[in-house]
Design brief:
The structure is a single chain. By secondary structure, the chain is of the alpha/beta class. It is 43% helix and 14% strand. It has a five-stranded mixed sheet, sandwiched between helices. A hairpin with a 5-residue loop joins strand 1 (140-153) and strand 2. Helix 1 (2-16) packs across helix 3. It is elongated. The model has no long low-confidence stretch (mean pLDDT 86).
Length: 316
């Protein structure tokens, strides 16, 4: 605020120069000449950051979840070489921030979907033991189910909350969602359909694959277990009640909900389903990640998947 006041005072002095002697004005206002000279040079100077601010606003409109680091990388991809601190300062000036950071969850009700129903089938050991990294594309895949909700208005004028269930399979190599299904209720058929897609997508893996999950009822099913066994895929499960054993999948669901779900209310299954589909496409093809060298998951796979180190993969 002090800097703003000095600028305003300097502008007043500048406007009065034609009527009064500069030294008299400065003396009457007890205003430092050096400060006046500093601001005088800037009165008719074009805003050097105006074009840059326009670019930042354009990036923010296309990627509202981007913070200053991702905005900096997006600008560099456009050929604009700029320091991230400069971008951070301009974003503060423009009063913009990553939308995901500003949103709060709208709690439609207090229930949460839990797929664990005790030991109802085959429980496998935890082969991954939180070793989520791999140098081999499609070697390690994880899956889980999450619930999102929408609100419908009933004929009697009341509102009803309904659930949408996303079954997703994620490649740990580049965090890409390689298959998924969206359904109106937890479904064995949806999981098996997504599993079949994931098996086909990862068939090019040069080493034996591992598919990880929690101990949810659907992953204990004989049909799920036999499908993996048929393809000679290792089945791995988190320990009971240990969500950190599948932290990589939990992280994706957290990102998805923060960036396209929290702070919004959807009013039909179709609208929420479409929003999820669009977000997964955006996440795979557009959303850049620092751990991937500021590339999207698909761009990272296309650039690096040929750099296969089989010895390292066997150690993992």
């Amino acid at each position: 605020m002090a800097a703003l006041c000095r600028r305003e005072i300097s502008q007043i002095i500048y406007d009065l120069r034609g009527k009064f002697i500069l030294t008299d004005i400065l003396k009457a206002l007890r205003f430092p000449k050096a400060t006046y000279m500093y601001w005088q040079k800037r009165f008719h100077r074009p805003d050097a950051d105006k074009a840059l601010e326009d670019r930042i606003l354009a990036v923010h409109r296309q990627n509202p979840d981007y913070g200053y680091r991702r905005v900096t990388i997006a600008l560099r991809d456009q050929g604009v070489l700029i320091n991230k601190k400069h971008v951070q300062r301009l974003m503060r000036k423009l009063h913009i921030q990553a939308e995901g950071c500003a949103k709060r969850a709208i709690h439609l009700d207090s229930t949460t979907y839990h797929s664990y129903q005790g030991k109802v089938g085959i429980v496998c050991k935890n082969r991954l033991r939180r070793r989520f990294c791999t140098a081999i594309c499609h070697q390690k895949v994880t899956t889980d189910t999450t619930e999102l909700k929408y609100v419908v208005k009933l004929p009697n004028g009341q509102f009803q909350v309904k659930g949408v269930y996303l079954d997703a399979f994620l490649d740990m190599y580049n965090r890409e969602i390689i298959s998924y299904r969206i359904s109106s209720q937890p479904s064995e058929g949806a999981i098996l359909a997504a599993l079949n897609d994931a098996v086909k997508v990862t068939a090019d893996c040069p080493v034996r694959r591992t598919f990880h999950s929690d101990q949810g009822w659907v992953y204990q099913m004989a049909a799920y277990h036999q499908r993996l066994k048929q393809e000679r895929i290792f089945q791995s499960m988190s320990r009971k009640g240990t969500c950190l054993d599948n932290a990589i999948m939990e992280n994706f669901f957290s990102i998805l909900k923060r960036e396209m779900y929290y702070g919004r209310v959807y009013h039909s299954f179709a609208r929420l389903k479409l929003a999820i589909q669009r977000y997964i496409h955006y996440y795979n093809y557009v959303r850049i990640k620092e751990r991937l060298g500021w590339l999207s998951p698909v761009a990272y796979r296309q650039r690096h998947s040929g750099d296969v180190d089989l010895d390292e993969a066997k150690q993992d």
